[in-house]
Amino acid sequence: MAAIPLAALAIAVPAKATTVTLDGNGTDNCYASQSGICTLATNSTGGNTFMNQLVLTGATTSSSGGETNYANLSNSGSGTAMGTLPVGIVPVSWDFTISDNLGPVGWSVQFFLDFSGGYYQFFTSGTTSGGEVTGSGSISIFAVQAITGYGIGVFASGGSAFNLAAPLTINSQTSAPEPGSLLLMGAGGAALLVLRRKKRV
Question: How many CB atoms lie within 10 A of CB 79?
Answer without folding.
Answer: 18
